[in-house]
Design goal:
Elements lengths: L7 H4 L32 H4 L8 E2 L7 E3 L7 E4 L5 E8 L5 H11 L13 E4 L6 E7 L9 E9 L3 E10 H16 L2 E2 L25 E3 L8 E6 L5 E10 L5 H11 L15 E5 L2 E9 L10 E10 L2 E10 H6 L1 H9 L6
Length: about 350
């Protein structure tokens, strides 16, 4: 089940796994303290190389070790916890989005997708009209030592930028929040703000009331709240609350992303009843959905995802419960109460 993110995730979800698949299908940005090119603190447009496509800068964490990028990369970093992040640029569309995503999928043992199914989760580039597309090329049931890729693709007018985090799936899951923050730091020449400073983190202040039986969990840095649920016979489920800047794609795009994680066919229309439904909640209108795999894809059992999407000015909030299908089903009532308990501090 292909995952992140809201960066998400974040992310988004950043994933967002079905835990944090906010980062699985979304746009992100990254780099370090003296990247090539890192935008200067002032007079950005005057000091950056002129380019009709927009030259790109970023800010990488201080503990990422910069290494020789070689001939075909713009920058490369080794992370302290393992894994490698690379930044590269190709002219034009770089050979096509689907071709590149499927090439990466092949590198980590995933089957290729049809062009129409290669849709990443968008991440807005600050101070710009451009968006990055985020992808999480891992499987929910992958072993921790299996290879995976988190990626952000930034298509510009005459060039395309690629930000890739490659490493063992266990490392990617632990570090996806850091990678998402890196992606959020990306800036394009001519922006009005200081692009050497890290991008402001998405506002994560939210008040929720977890029901009995839910245990607070660490989650990733993309999450505003995170809980785990334990059931009989070792069944588990994960609950996440993830804010992603902007509108973060249509409901159909997000639901189809989650359906792909459950190995379900995508829905063709936003009018399909399987998409879910709108509901009124104290905090505003939410869109709720519930989907269950038809295959035993999670530890020999069927898996399920229940979600609620809340759009607020400048931010989209994703509430998700993911895990063993029977446990998710048993907690649907609690999940609905949990979502409706949401309030936002002034």
């Amino acid at each position: 089940m292909c995952k992140f993110l809201l960066l998400a995730p974040l992310l988004l979800c950043v994933l967002g796994s079905c835990k944090d698949d906010e980062i699985r299908t979304y746009r992100v940005a990254t780099d370090s303290t003296a990247e090539t090119p890192v935008l200067p603190a002032s007079d950005t447009a005057a000091k950056m190389p002129e380019s009709t496509a927009g030259s790109v800068g970023w800010k990488a964490p201080d503990d990422w070790k910069r290494e020789n990028a070689g001939q075909f990369l713009t920058a490369a970093y080794v992370l302290p916890g393992g894994g490698r992040v690379t930044v590269s640029k190709l002219a034009g569309d770089g050979g096509g989005l689907a071709a590149n995503i499927n090439r990466w999928r092949g590198q980590v043992g995933l089957k290729p997708l049809d062009d129409k199914d290669v849709a990443g989760q968008p991440l807005k580039i600050a101070d710009s009209q451009e968006e990055m597309l985020l992808y999480n090329l891992t499987s929910e049931n992958s072993a921790a030592d299996a290879e995976g890729i988190l990626a952000g693709v930034l298509p510009l007018t005459t060039e395309t930028w690629y930000f890739k985090f490659t490493g063992p799936v266990g490392v990617l899951r632990k570090t996806e929040g850091v990678f998402a923050e890196f992606l959020r730091s990306v800036r394009i020449a001519g922006s009005q703000k200081d692009a050497t400073a890290p991008a402001a983190s998405a506002a994560k202040k939210v008040n929720v009331t977890p029901p009995d039986g839910w245990t607070a969990s660490e989650g990733s840095s993309m999450r505003a709240a995170s809980f785990s649920i334990a059931g009989p016979d070792g069944a588990t489920a994960d609950v996440s609350v993830v804010p992603i800047p902007g509108d973060s794609g249509s409901v159909l795009d997000n639901v189809n992303r989650w359906r792909s994680q459950l190995k379900l066919a995508p829905l063709a229309s936003a009018d399909d009843p399987a998409l879910g439904k709108k509901e009124d909640a104290p905090v505003g209108e939410i869109f709720v959905s519930h989907m269950t795999s038809t295959e035993a894809i999670l530890n020999g059992k069927n898996a399920a995802i229940a979600s609620a999407i809340l759009k607020r000015p400048g931010m989209t909030w994703f509430f998700k419960i993911t895990g063993d299908a029977s446990l998710v089903e048993a907690n649907l009532g609690k999940f609905a109460t949990f979502v409706r308990s949401t309030t936002f501090p002034d």
